[in-house]
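Tokens for chain A. Residues wanted.
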């Protein structure tokens, strides 16, 4: 039995490589389809890992208090924001929450910043000294502002490394230098270690200019916060912290006036959105596999027509219908499998270079699935021409011109 399968496989390979160019063009659809599916899954997994790393890097035991309802009933982003804004009374109330290890008020404002002859549009991040602890932000050069700077409304800033490079050329050159923002002069006292971010439209903490919130309030005349970031004492305390914060906020606002979310909840929502998007893209890429399968079917019909006399001779000397059927099915399967292997090799080559810029991850399950599906497509679309070949009358086939 093994010798029989080996003979059929050798015959199929001989027929395939006898027309190399035609065989390659036939498998091109499978190559593109398999490569597309594997790459999209790899990019999806890489994106998921990237987002997860960003949240882990910035702290997972955090909760966020936003104005308005940012989540709809199904758990997705609603985008609904309230005209409500938080104030220092909310800040003082939240600092009394027992489960809170750090309460960080945040006021954000886009502003043009000038240093030397360089001008950059940055985000002024008005906040308290606790932001550096809560967000795991460590100084690379210089120092961070302290509680006394908040009390004195000091005109000092701490720069993210990205904005420091843009304004001063090198990060260490920023320390002690002055920059101008909101028509005021500030002294740079520190530059932070890189944290990343900025992907998917999210905040890039390396490009922020951190300023004491009291200083920003004093300069702009604003007295409200855009959000609060609150650090729990541990991951286990997050849910309890959310409940306590909700009780505090309900003392002043209605439930629909604010939203409370934690890092993992936001991460889960983002991942679910990209999971659906990835499924749609994989579905589109699968169309290439179907097109490739149709190409294999068409070329197998051509092959049956070209080899009609050969089929007749084989039937005349004792080959059964099942033998002819199996031969052409094997040929179609090998064609699609070769296309699948070439597609996988192409995927690995692309991912090898993409990893320099993006953490793409090839999953072994997607590799096995791609090979299985490509073989299945070869069998499915090869059945019709194979049946046609098997059903040919030996006498008519031999007489075929």
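Reply:
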């Amino acid at each position: 039995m093994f010798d029989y399968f080996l003979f059929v496989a050798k015959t199929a390979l001989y027929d395939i490589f006898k027309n190399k160019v035609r065989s390659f063009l036939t498998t091109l659809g499978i190559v593109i389809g398999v490569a597309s599916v594997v790459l999209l899954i790899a990019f999806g997994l890489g994106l998921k890992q990237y987002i997860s790393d960003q949240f882990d890097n910035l702290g997972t035991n955090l909760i966020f208090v936003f104005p308005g309802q940012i989540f709809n009933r199904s758990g997705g982003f609603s985008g609904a924001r309230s005209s409500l804004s938080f104030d220092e009374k909310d800040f003082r109330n939240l600092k009394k929450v027992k489960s809170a290890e750090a309460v960080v008020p945040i006021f954000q404002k886009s502003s043009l910043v000038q240093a030397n002859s360089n001008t950059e549009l940055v985000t002024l991040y008005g906040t308290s000294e606790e932001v550096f602890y809560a967000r795991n932000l460590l100084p690379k050069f210089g120092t961070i502002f302290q509680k006394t700077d908040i009390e004195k409304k000091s005109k000092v800033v701490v720069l993210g490394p990205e904005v420091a490079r843009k304004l001063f050329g090198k990060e260490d050159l920023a320390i002690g230098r002055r920059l101008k923002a909101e028509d005021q002069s500030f002294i740079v006292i520190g530059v932070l270690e890189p944290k990343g971010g900025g992907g998917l439209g999210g905040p890039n903490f390396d490009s922020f200019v951190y300023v004491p919130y009291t200083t920003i309030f004093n300069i702009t005349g604003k007295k409200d916060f855009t959000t609060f970031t609150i650090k729990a004492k541990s991951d286990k305390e997050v849910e309890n912290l959310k409940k306590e914060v909700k009780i505090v906020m309900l003392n002043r606002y209605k439930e629909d006036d604010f939203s409370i979310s934690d890092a993992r909840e936001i991460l889960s929502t983002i991942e679910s959105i990209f999971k659906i998007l990835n499924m749609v893209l994989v579905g589109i890429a699968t169309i290439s596999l179907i097109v490739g399968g149709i190409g294999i079917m068409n070329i197998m019909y051509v092959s049956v027509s070209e080899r009609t006399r050969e089929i007749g001779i084989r039937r005349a000397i004792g080959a059964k219908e099942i033998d002819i059927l199996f031969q052409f099915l094997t040929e179609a399967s090998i064609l699609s499998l070769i296309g699948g292997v070439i597609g996988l090799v192409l995927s690995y080559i692309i991912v090898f270079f993409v990893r320099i810029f993006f953490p793409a991850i090839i999953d072994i399950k997607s590799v096995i699935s791609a090979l299985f599906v490509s073989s299945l497509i070869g069998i499915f679309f090869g059945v019709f021409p194979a049946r046609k070949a098997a059903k040919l009358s030996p006498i008519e086939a031999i007489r075929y011109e």
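Residues 2-53+270-399 form one domain. Residues 34 and 343 are 5 Å apart (CA to CA).
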